[in-house]
Amino acid sequence: MVKRITEIQSFLSHADYSLAVRRMLDLSLDCGDSELLRAAINWSKTYHAHLKNNSEGLPNNFFTEAEALLLQLQRFEASGILTPKMLMNVENISKKYSSSNFSLKPISLQVKTGDILGIVGENGNGKTTLLRCLCGELALDSGHVAYTTITNPDYYNIKGHVAFIPQRIPKWHGLLKDNLHFSASLAGNTGDKNELMVDFMLERLNLTDYAHLTWSKISSGYRTRFEIARILLQQPSLLILNEPLANLDINAQQTILTDLRYLAKSVYHPMGIILSSQQLHEVEKVADNVLLIKQGSCLFSTNDNDEATSSSAIELETSASRDTIIGLLGEEHIRIQFNGGFYTITSSSFNAHYMISKLLNNEVPITYFRDITNSTKRFF
Amino acid sequence: MTNKRPLAPSILNKLDKYLLLNKPEIWSARTHLVMYYGLLFIALLTGICFIIPDDARTSSNIYYWAMFMSVVCLIAVIVWLLFLLRFNVFKRFGNITAFGRFTTFLLYFVSVGTIVAFAFVQPAVENIRANKAYTDAEVINDINTINLNICKLEFDSIRKDWYYDTVVVVAKPSERRSRNNYEDYEESDEPSVDSLNAIIPYVHLPFKEVTRADINEQINRGDSIIKINDTLYKVYDDPNLQILNPYQAGKHIDTSIYSSIELYRLAYKQHKNIDTAALRKELKRLITKYQSPEKDRYQYTNEYGRNPSFTERFSVDYGVKEISNSVNNVCQRKSTWDKVNLPFIFRLFFYFTFIISLLVFIFRHTSIKAFFLSLLTAFVLLILSSLLSVFVSNKGIPSVAVYLGFFTLFAVFGSLVVRSKKRNIIVGISINLFVMMVAFVPSISLSLYELLTYSKPLYTSGLNDDMIEHYKTYQLYAEILGIVILLLLIPTYIHWLYRKWFALPQD
Lengths: 380, 507
What we know:
The complex is a heterodimer. Chain A is an alpha/beta fold. Chain A has 14 helices and 13 strands.
């Protein structure tokens, strides 16, 4: 608790107000005090109203209210401990479509509460098939999926606990806010609690200004965010998202991923998250484990990276020629590939730090660099 | 929730919000909104129906209204469905309580019922207005006065030779005789045998076979009957003196109008020393009272037919023919909701509502593909069953037996969901058709029992009123039993079937 309060104080002191507001909301929710949560929501509304008006500097009462909230939060001591529980144990599941040649080869994985599992891979390699198998939408040809926290695991219960957000989100009808209230009711949050949870989620994902609109009046990025809000209000124990970043801008991608990270580890309602994406680096930043799926098989897992530790790999964008780079690093030590945009350099002799230092010391102009030693990117 | 609904009071908005936050199943059915706007529309429609000028003597516009209101009902149902289909607790795999499972269907029924009720507003208003304009006693008195006055005035012209027929009372007419009797009934308006002045014996072969119930009915009606022995009767067919006799009169009016024999007896007693001028004046007043303001849609002429009966002649001479349709219109409007018609109207309302509600219920619990394939399957099976009945001699038994056969088949196939690992479309269709058919199984079983016992439907035999009355009662019980079975199965077995099937993974 103290750590989280200190974290919020740090965000406030460094003017990371957006992050401070979101974390304050999370912490208030984890405390389980509805009055405190209501106060945090109102504080968040003050902040968002200020942003909307584009007025200079935050009002003083923003900071005084923050202090008051933090003071109240200090009273709650034991609300910050998350004990991971096994949610899903997948053993050698496979799937073959009768109408096509594609097949998903046997894959095993595990997901615990608080975990984020990233699934990456090129288009048409089986990411969506795997996700649909995991959420019980597709029948398996072999293998077994155990939903360990569900007491009566018939498919109706499973689908009530495992939420799946497809890439193409089905259209919502009616007011967006009504949909959120409806989802909150389905989770058993009725009456005032329903209103509180919807207000929380709208503020948490910064959607309050759009809640009175309809589906056709919001952009595809906001649709994704509303869908996430709706699903989160249903309080699933496992959230599966198929390409959630596809319609989001760079900032929104980062925000959503960070939010998912925090929400997964929420003490109030911890959950596991499985997401597929083409944004490898963004996913890798937040995921506890990343699976690379290629032609229906699990090619690589960051939790099992023997191959990665045996060699280093970097991505490099430079105006220097291939010969210059080879000349500096030595042809016998590296393997270099150019994809038209940047170089991918793999080496068993040098680590990433050495390679970039060598190039910089020899005044090679570098416009982009990334260490992909532990990334799935090197297998693309 | 926060959008402004036209004409919605704040209490409705509060109720809507309360249901959304607390009772998602009830909220998503939108019954509260359907009921509010439906009742508002019914009130408006009632007002319009009362304001529109309408004369009870003119032909009823009920059929034009029915067609118009059917279109309105269809539009209203579509609008409701557009709102209903937005939210579905079941398809979102939400927790549905046992009470929620039970009330879901009832909510659909109430919503559809409110909409279907639109079509019954105009007939109800028409009935109220007709009853307000002409009381039962007034109409009965006027018809009796017209008929009696004419009989008094024309007593000397009334035919005195009555037709009669000899009948034999049997417990259960034979098939051959029944058929003969049926034909006899068809021709009974023009008896071909016997008259009071005829010399031929009144006992002729073959005797007309009637049941005890028929004889009792004729005795009760007061027609002349001479008992020859316990089973043989001589039945006189009195001349038709009901110059004005509205065929659409309700039972209450019909039984209160003087029968021919009553008119004959009263005229016989009163035809001497009558005040002809006063009777004619009274007749003219009544004829004027019932003259329709609109031109009659049925063409009539003030001319006799080729061989006019004395009834027809009186009808033309005194202008009764001119008002017969008007009086009939009045009686028809007054009797729309009487005890005889009410069961039919109630069934019409109930089954329309029930079937639409059932289809909505099924649609809400199955996949779109399975729903439409179920309708297609039902349609194809209907055609096949009809074809089957064409090729067999007994039309009834195969039809109902096939229905029960299909029902059993669908029940068995539907129950296979317990062993399914994947969502199978055939199992889904079977469940849908099982749900569609289950409420009608008791009625169909009763029909099959009746057919097997009596060889043909009782209502077509027309011979045993007691048995028909019993059959009607049993049929009513069977209908109620079917509904009760469905209502019991919905929150239990049917919910379980759909829950199991819909959540299964697909191939």
